[in-house]
Input
Amino acid sequence: SDETIALVGELPRPANQEAYERLILGVYNRRSELVNGAPSYVKASDGRFMLWHDGRGWCVGFASDKGRPRGYIRLSSDKKRLEDAIGTWQVNTEKGLGSWLDASWLDAPGLRLLRHVPPADEVSVVGERTRDQKDAEGRKRAIDLTEGTMETPRKRSRVDDVETRVAKARSLCASEVDARAHELMEEAVREFIAKKVDGAELERRREAAREQAEKEHPPLSALETAFAAYTAAAAAEQAAEAKREAAEATLEAALRALEKKGEAGPSGVKAEA
Output
């Protein structure tokens, strides 16, 4: 199986499109641990998300649910090698994570799995989407598929260094955020045990608790705000560079046409030296 893969493309509306794309699209690295006898992958830019085979097919969800038949997207297949799995990915249209049985699933033909993705120190693929909220998950390994531009190794190295530092900084906050999320979930767990809420509602509250815990953590909240501004600026810089190169190519073509005409002379015959 491939050491590095990437999930790219578009999710259908109204399947929580923007949030899901921000969370699950991007590059995944293969882990040494097998899950249900099949390779498993972890998202390069956010270790909270994994890709695994749950016995019925492949799915992407929280790492804490690895091995279970629940997640944001799925691909029905009994093939234990991802490259052998054929079919159309589906996306969960409900809020929160969904199991294979109790969630509503919608075909996502625009979602694609890329194999043979280059290592992190080379290049990567992102979609054309330009929403302001798109963060490093969608820009990591950046070849713009529309413009065909490539980052220089120096720029990529600088971006990789920043993203590595951000990932490490996030991990320093993980234990405190987890503890706060558990506190926020206590009432929901009691209601679930008392059968006042179902599993889907519990998952929704768990996701909400995690988001609230992250927002309540001042250093992490400040980090995420600053990182979002940084990635937005980097994307704008890359887009400006792509436009400059396109304009330069157009100018070069116009100059060459006139220069060639000048070489030919007024009669259209190339002047002799």
Notes: The CA atoms of residues 7 and 32 lie 20 Å apart.
